Amino acid sequence: MLNFVKNYMEKLFIWFEEFVSPEEAGNLNVRPLFGLFMLGGFLVVSVFVFDLVLTVMHPAKDWHGAFGDFFGGIVNPILTFLSFMGLLITIVMQRVELRETRRELEKSAKALEEQSSHFKLQNFESSFFKMIEIQRSCVASMAFGSVSGRRAFSGFCKTLNSFLVRENVNLSSRKAQHELVDELRIKNGWRNFWDQYQLEVSNYFSNLMVLIRFLDGWQENDRVYIEILRSQFCDEERVLLLYYGIYHGGYIGQSIIRLGLVEGLNLNKLTFQKDTSLLK
Question: Which of 274, 224, 230, 236 is nearest to 256 (CA)?
Fold first, then answer.
């Protein structure tokens, strides 16, 4: 008997759930409303039976009116109270649903943010490695006399050092002020080098500066990409980059320092080793 009642109540609940829940609402917890519905039905039936029993046991001439008055007077407050409770339960259920919806929206927003960050990283890496390939192409196209590719930087480096030595001699003969000797030597030496080899090296430095600005502007400031860029340079390239940064100074010099692009430079490649301290 107990199992029969239990099964019947479960079937009744399934019907009630399908009746009050729209198809697009998903799985809603309507069991509190079902309990309230069953309580209301039980009370109404109980009052009806009780009123019927009293009427049969104590018949009166106007028993129809007495029966209706008693039944209505008892049932109406009960149904009103149950309706109010049902309204409160519905409000609570809606608040729960709104809270769950808010959580799902937060999860979706977080997922979209992570997806956006992933796409941003992908775009950055794609652009970065494309620039690296362009820079490698510039290196491969370099030429110093009959020497080409990365080996050409050895000739450029030696030539630049010779210009610096020549300027040092000229300034010494003119007895320039001591504190200006190094600055003038580098500026004049680099200017002479640039005037003679601008056609060969300008494209290399232009592309390199674009790459440095791009990497320096990357908000994540990931050292992995900086190390990848640093690994592209030989010592002779670092020498040219050192004097390029000293000559231009400002943002270019600060970016070279900030990214550590001349760190690990072999000082034997420099005629004036103290020049490393002039990069600012």
Answer: 230
Q: What single letter denotes the amino acid at residue 173?
A: S
Tokens representing 246 are 């000293």
Most confident residue range from 6-20, 43-57, 97-111, 190-204: 190-204
Helix or strand or coil: residue 100? helix
Q: In the beta sheet, which residues pair with residue 92?
A: none
CB 190 within 8 A of CB 223: no
Predicted confidence band at 16 (pLDDT cuts at 50, 70, 90)? low
**What's the chain's Rg over C-alpha atoms?**
44
Q: What is the number of other CB atoms lying within 10 angstroms of the CB of residue 176?
A: 14
Write phi, then psi, for 148 (nearest 5 degrees).
Answer: -130, 170
> Within 10 A of 35 (CB to CB), how many other CB atoms are there?
12
Assess contact for 229 and 209: CB atoms under 8 A.
Answer: no
As separate numbers, helices (DSSP H) first and strands (DSSP E) second, the chain gives: 8, 2
DSSP conformational letter for 187: H
pLDDT band at residue 24 using 50, 70 and 90 as cut-offs: very low
Is it the case that residue 194 has pLDDT exceeding 60? Answer: yes
Give per-residue burial for 38-60: e unless 16+ CB within 10 Å, then b. eebeebbeebeeebeeebeeeee
Nearest to 239 by CA among 191, 199, 272: 272
Q: Which residues pair with 148 in a beta bridge?
A: 143
Distance CA 257, CA 83 (A): 75
CB neighbour list of residue 134: distance below 8 Å, 6 or more residues apart: 207
Is the pLDDT at 129 greater than 60, yes or no? Answer: yes
Greater confidence (236 vs 72) lies with 236
